[in-house]
Amino acid sequence: MSDAGDPALPSAADVVVVGAGAAGLAFAWRVASPGLRVVCLERGPRVDQRRSPSLSAEWELALQTRFNPNPNIRAGPADYPVDDSASAIRPAFFNAVGGSTIRWGAHFPRFRPSDFRVRSLDGVGADWPVGYDELVPWYDLNDRMMGVAGLAGDPANPPRAPRPTGPLPLCPATERLAAGFDRLGWHWWPSDAAILSAPRGDREGCNNCGPCGLGCPRHARASADIAYLAQAEARGVRLITGATVTGIEMGHGGRVAALRWRDAKGDAHRLVCGEAVLAGNGLGTARLMLGTAGLAHPLLGRGLMLHPTAIVTGRFTEALASWRGAFAASLYSQEFYETDRSRGFVRGFQMQALREQGPLSTALGGYGARLPWGPKHADAFAAHFGRSISLTVTCEDLPEEENRIALDPVRTASDGMAVPRMIYRLGENSRKMRDFGIQRAEEALRAAGAVDVSVTPLARNAGFHLMGTARMGTDPATSVLGCDGRPHGVANLTVVDGALFPSSGAVNPTPTLQAMALRLADRMRVRLGLTERAA
Amino acid sequence: MSGEALLDALLDALVPGDGRDLPAAGGLALGPRCRTVAEMVAGGTQALEEVLASLPADFITQSLEQRTFSLQALEAAAPDPFAQVVMAAYGAYYTDERVRAVLAGRFGYMDRPPQPEGHALAPFDPTLLARVVARGACWRPADGP
Predict the structure, then answer these.
(1) Predicted complex ipTM exceeds 0.90
(2) CA geometry: angle at A491 spanning A467 and A139, to 5°?
(3) What is the 3-state secondary structure (H, E, C) of A425-460?
(4) Does A155 sit within 8 Å of B132, measured CB to CB?
(5) Chain B nearest-CA residue for A208
(6) Cβ distance B125 to A170 under 8 Å?
(7) Closest Cα of chain B to A44: distance in Å?
């Protein structure tokens, strides 16, 4: 249900946040203050996770249809089409309050210190204007807000505070994987997961059901709405759903004057704002900025980074019931995360275990290859179902200018804006890394006891981490945004989502983009003369 | 030749069962269900109609081997619509309660939605980490090397 039919819609606000996803809600909560008018405009609806499709016999169909991560397939009322005809990887994001955290697996890793210094350390990409140590207080704050299960002490990462709840358990399949890594002498660790393993506040603990991507009726699995929305509204944040921002109106002196938006009925509105904050993900934010003449920059939209991902699936002879447990948050290996030039590429990758979800997901292959149809189908299904486990090879991507978000010069979406084009090819460094990683994942699965291994070299539907399309930096010639997330020369517009990433790391970017959003909110508070908050 | 008979023949060719306990999709009369699933995604109905219209005139009377060959050619010519039809066929099949009952009996799979019951959540066993911990810290500091 849309909130945009409310006759008392605001015509002015001190801070307007565009997008109520992982970054937008974290930012809105953090910046809010008594007397500060904070409005959050979200094109999608609120999602009642207490009524998740995981309670229904139709749950697997929901994963493929209205919860499909690809907006072109889902094609819901809040979605806009993305032209991905020139992209090796298809877009994957969700338009709703909570954003893509409604649809995610809740794997919750941090970037490593080197991820912020790729230019200095390895001569590629760009350094961040902020380092890991500086971000730690906001990482910790976000962990507490989201509610994390995990275990401090991972030797592949800097020491960190105890996790709010203990780690989720392994299962027979992931125990085999762990043993395989041990046999090879490789690193592994239980995932940090934005999933509570025990009750906390008004949220229940995880009951190991599996399909986290359908929303969690227990609220054990965090999403931005569960973690931040109620507290943001308690601080006075006004959320308007069904509100699609269609334009940024530039005023005098390089300032944003107002945002233009449409409600669910298509009626146009104008919202005068003191500060505008963009949190529509690396694609949506770039789309909005590219449509604004006053924000032109040669690098805007360019340098799109995804996480090119191979899926390597091992099949075991034993029945492992590998559909039990959080599908994407069990364990990972960062054995090959850092640069070793003898491998023929720079930077590295993470291997992350993926469980099965259910019969239909198994038949369709999840993010990997679909099982064959026809006479071989039943045997293939019987061989795999409950007996397979996958490793992702999640590659750090480098910013290449030809990989980009652009606007279609002709096609207009139903929201009145140009259809965005996603243009992406796999770079040479990523290709070499991916190929090397596939071999290592095969090795790990064999060491775990898999009797055969199948490879999906590139998961086409895995365009869920959209980064770098308005990267931040200190030099206006090589970055779109300055250190505060504001476009160089624009005083009152801040980007707080994955668009600002100068580098991609090789892990889910959500904890990092949320930590950045919280940090940028604190910096805005200082600019606005508000009380500084301790992280 | 009725449209439903043709769709059943298509479903039988896509999911022919194993001749034992897993039934063929067409025999379950899943045609209407397949259409419903196809409607749930953008372009799904169009893809299904496109594939049905492209089948050889004698598809129903073809042997399973001939049908498979026909469909392989169709898939090679138009992979995207064909993939949508396979999704609809698998979707209709694996959410059918008769198939779910077979999966429960044969694979021990739950014959119920994942929630609210879930599965037991045992505590994590930290002794599993002994070898990893023994290796010591292995992360790279931001100041090199």
Answers:
(1) yes
(2) 45
(3) CCCHHHHHHHHHHHHHHHHHHHHHCCCEEEEECCCC
(4) yes
(5) B119
(6) yes
(7) 18
